[in-house]
Amino acid sequence: MSDQFDFIIVGAGSAGCAMAYRLSEDPGNRVLLLEFGGTDAGPLIQMPAALSYPMNMALYDWGYESEPEPHLGGRRLATPRGKVIGGSSSINGMVYVRGHACDFDTWEDMGASGWGFRNVLPYYKRMETSHGGQSGWRGTDGPLHVRRGTKWNPLFHAFRDAGAQAGYGVTEDYNGERQEGFGDMEMTVHKGRRWSAANAYLKPALKRGNL
């Protein structure tokens, strides 16, 4: 192959899609993205209600397992990983949870300079468009849409209220200032479709001539 590239990204998973999007923002960069897996087209991946299918299909999942677990009778646990455009973001359960602020701050205390929560929060905000998140803690114009669903069933509210009645905390946004407590689940779904890294990052970037 005689083509020349400034960047070669191996794997169109969650990280690879985001890297391709950001690197190709500079028209001076020529970017090549390589992916072993196939297309993410079709309802089994794009339809949120079908979430249990792709993570159990050899077409989309590498089929990894854990080592035998001695405290589980020697059983091996399934560890699905995406073998498809979008990687594991194309086969996961679409639940959106940020890393805990105390974890980042602990890593910084242990020597990971620049990895405190105050350092990573701007990147969390840059990546997302939050629909209903806490102001000041959430992004409003990023490529990854995060929603809470319609909560049409009264059991949604009853479950949260039961947690409060049992003495547990309640949070209006577990990806905001208060990360502990019962609250509404957030998901990477937009316009009725799984909003994977491929839909959020890769497909818009493919419209550029340098990727």
The oligomerization state is single chain
CA-based gyration radius: 19 Å
Write down the overall mean pLDDT.
96
Low-confidence runs (pLDDT<50, min 5 residues)?
Answer: none
How would you sum up the global shape?
A: globular
User: What pattern of helices and strands is seen along the backbone?
Assistant: EHEHHHEEHEEH
**Terminal Cα span:** 16 Å
Beta-strand percentage range: 5-15%
Secondary structure topology:
Layout: E1 7-10, H1 14-23, E2 31-34, H2 43-46, H3 101-109, H4 117-127, E3 128-130, E4 144-146, H5 154-165, E5 189-190, E6 193-194, H6 197-205
Parallel strand pairs: 1-2, 3-4
Antiparallel strand pairs: 5-6
Describe the structure.
This protein has helices spanning 14-23, 43-46, 101-109, 117-127, 154-165, 197-205, and strands spanning 7-10, 31-34, 128-130, 144-146, 189-190, 193-194. It is α/β, with parallel strands linked by helices and 211 residues long. The model has no long low-confidence stretch (mean pLDDT 96). It contains six helices and six strands. The strands form three sheets. Strands 1-2 form a two-stranded parallel sheet. The chain has a two-stranded parallel ribbon with strand order 3-4. It has a two-stranded antiparallel ribbon with strand order 5-6.
